[in-house]
């Protein structure tokens, strides 16, 4: 087995931050931070404050050489100023002793976003004084821990802390003023400079800052970096690069703000906050720059676009969604972005030594009794490590790599739903279990390199053996064939989950032949009318064409056309298929997925399988509609259901039923087909059977429009006597009288998700189905 190895002495480890893991928010005199105030989630996090020994042991078992943690400022200065709280510092004292005993080198970050609330109340980062309080804090921490910390980082990602905290308001403290974002950024830079000076004066050996550096590119450059830009796009790229990257790099490493950024700052905030001498402090030489990399910023010029509040001064720049595989966070996966960043930094700031201080991903893990399977995270880290290695070969000065992060944790405004950890945490019990990625990373560290061949994934054979069935049966189940008994289906699906099996059709078709063509297969008729279909065709086509694919549109309207389409795909004339199936169960989806060519579906299929699909939360939308009616005091709510063989209609009915059950009420149903006339007829029937009826929830807008007509005919006023709610939010829904209250199905998002799903499959990635939220749109009819 040959090995792609890393330079000798390359530093391997993980990063964490105090607020995200420690918990114990009032233990030993800790004061509140802005995140305690801002966060809506349970503050216990991973209870690392009490479980640090176990966590250090875990790291030791995984072979980590380095651990980057952050010190919680409000533990040390509960009131922001005054005397340091020794009990708080003692925790880090214990942690350091434990780390050193385990042979792990500690890297300490002083500010990872948890400003003492008292300092926020005194003005927060827009106030210059906060930078001086930071320097005091740095001195106090160094005094206690300085003898054991190898490298000090002052601030973590000041762009995020300033522009999300004070610009867009998406992060704590939740303020949204462009001027404050710029003054905060400057004061964080000043805090960094004052901090480095204070640390050095106290005898610290190595100090630096941690910046999130995102390469900025246009959509076309994502796949073709060398692509030349129009002057307008080049200007857009430069402006965002100045805001996101150079605003921090240049003051720290060159002692000046970028010339093209100064007018942008001045327009938003004036320049009065930048005092003489500040930049000299900020550019105090550093020993290492921490680089956090997750994803690029993709932009293009678009004159009509208003400024994004997180990027004040960005008017005329569109932040683009690109058709690449994404993490569960929705962040595009672009490993080459890491080489780009590292190479660029080493070219433009050649004196600076680099450490990748964060890189990692949120994915949906498969949690089973025999382990936590996260093949996506392994691929993500592996691809980024390969990119890093390329940059090192090209001369980038990178001294190590720290994964974000050790434990699943409290991901800021997103709470506990995000899973970035190498180690799974069960938040009910605080039990820790290393995921497959942790064990894989341990091996990487052990051999200081990657194997040239990827680890073997479970195959069809492995699944068949585990489920004690034939390979053909496994294949039938994963492709959604109806001919398998429910028991066998359950056994196979269990084996699939336990083993983390991913059908590797895409890999096969990659290995054989590439046509660069994708078939968009339209089965007719579709429920919900032509609007969704038209939009999906338009969006999917433009996204996939944008990704360099040729599109072939195929109509599946007869048995003969089905046969021809299957033949076409079997002959490998396409690389992948986007199927917009007719809603009534037909066999086209399963026949296509048996060809081994990647297929993705619009809408959940009637039979569970591994063929990934994109759908909306039909049950959730129907429950929201029903709850609205209940909250309005409606007591006799009828539902007009469309044909019951449609999966979406069945899901809408079950959401409606569930909401009624919670409210202790019985459903009243009438079944229709898809037409307005049948919606009217079903409504007349409901009104006849239940004279007290005061609301109708219809499974589609077309049926709801029929219900409005029936109400008019029998002299019921809408909404006074009868409330009516539909589903889909078709164009006609806002043109009825009264305008229809309905549930919006996000058409463009569905199309986007479908295109992404297919691209992920074409890249041979593991993909899970996507269910998008459906939102209630309240108009006049209820
Ligand atoms: C970085 C933060 C870190 C974590 C990751 C996902 O921006 O520094 O705390 O939230 O993103």
TrEMBL record:
It catalyses: Hydrolysis of terminal, non-reducing beta-D-glucosyl residues with release of beta-D-glucose. PROSITE patterns: GLYCOSYL_HYDROL_F1_2, HTH_LACI_2. GO terms for molecular function: beta-glucosidase activity; DNA binding. Pfam families: Glyco_hydro_1, LacI, Peripla_BP_3. Signal peptide: none annotated. Its EC number is 3.2.1.21. Keywords: Carbohydrate metabolism, Cellulose degradation, DNA-binding, Glycosidase, Hydrolase, Polysaccharide degradation, Transcription, Transcription regulation. GO terms for cellular component: cytosol. Substrate binds at residues 20, 112, 156, 294, 404, 411-412. The active site is at 157 (proton donor), 358 (nucleophile). InterPro entries: GH, GH_1_N_CS, Glyco_hydro_1, Glyco_hydro_1_beta-glucosidase, HTH_LacI, LacI/GalR-like_sensor, Lambda_DNA-bd_dom_sf, Peripla_BP_I. GO terms for biological process: cellulose catabolic process; regulation of DNA-templated transcription. Residues 458-512 form the HTH lacI-type domain. PANTHER family: GLYCOSYL HYDROLASE, LP05116P. Belongs to the glycosyl hydrolase 1 family. This is Beta-glucosidase. It comes from Nonomuraea cypriaca.
